[in-house]
C-alpha cells in the first residue's frame, strides 16, 4: 500500500493488522464515506453512527443503500459524547473524523469539549483489543483549537491504561490533517 498525505491511507495502515471488529462506532458520520468503507471492509460488524445533523444521516443512509448495504447499522441524530448512552456493548473500533460536514455549513463544527467527552465515552466501553482513531484538522482556527485541546487531553491519559500515538505527515505544508490512535495498554 502506498502511503500518501491523505489520512485514509493512515487509517488503512492502522486497520491492516486488526482482527475483524464485531462492534464499530462512527462517532462523526458526516457524508457516510467512512461508514461505507467500514461496512465494506468489515461486513459482519455491527456499526453505530452518530451525527448532530439530520442531513448527514439521510445522505449516509442513501450512500449505504446505493451500495446494497441495508442492515448491520444504526444511525443516531446525536453528538458523539452520547456514545455510551446508545451503545451497550464493548466497542472494537471507534472512528472520529473531526471538523464539519463536507459540503455543509462550516460554522457547524465539532468542538473540543464534546470531542473530549466523546473520546472519554468511547474509552469507557472500548474492548481490550479495541482502537479509537481520531482524525484532527488543524488547518482552520476551530480545527487548530480542537487539535490542541484534544492532544492535551490524550497526553494526560494514564500510560498504564491507554496507549496513544500520533500518525502525521512531517513534510506536508499548510497544517495537514493527522491521526491519533488510542488503544488499551497491553503491558
Can you tell me about this structure?
Strand 2 (46-51), helix 3 (54-66) and strand 3 (73-77) form a beta-alpha-beta unit. Helix 5 (112-124) packs parallel to helix 6 (141-155). The chain has helices at residues 7-15, 33-41, 54-66, 83-86, 112-124, 141-155, and strands at 23-26, 46-51, 73-77, 91-97, 126-136, 162-167, 178-184. Strands 3-2-1-4-5-7-6 form a seven-stranded mixed sheet, with helices on both faces. It has six helices and seven strands, in the order αβαβαβαβαβαββ. The chain has one domain (7-184): Rossmann fold (3-Layer(aba) Sandwich), CATH 3.40.50.150. The chain is of the alpha/beta class.
What is the secondary structure topology, with strand pairs?
Elements: H1 7-15, E1 23-26, H2 33-41, E2 46-51, H3 54-66, E3 73-77, H4 83-86, E4 91-97, H5 112-124, E5 126-136, H6 141-155, E6 162-167, E7 178-184
Parallel strand pairs: 1-2, 1-4, 2-3, 4-5
Antiparallel strand pairs: 5-7, 6-7
Helix pairs in contact: 5-6
